[in-house]
Amino acid sequence: MMDLGVDLVREALAQALMLAAPILLAGLLIGLVVSIFQTVTQVQEQTLTFVPKIAGMILVGIAIIPWIINMMVDYATAMFTGAP
Hints:
Blueprint: H1 2-41, H2 50-63, H3 65-81
């Protein structure tokens, strides 16, 4: 019984990571591009990275909403039906 609980928690965490990964990767890439821009132009404004990151992550989130919903429905269906 304990193994079933551990497997369910592991699967839930893996699912959450899969759903968050595209948005987090967008933030990482945008942050990297802004950092390179700041280095090249020698503009050292700390708050400059926040607006592009937030905007990019929101746009990526909106773009992948159908995929996220599909993954969540598949996961919920598997949980409620007992399918692997």
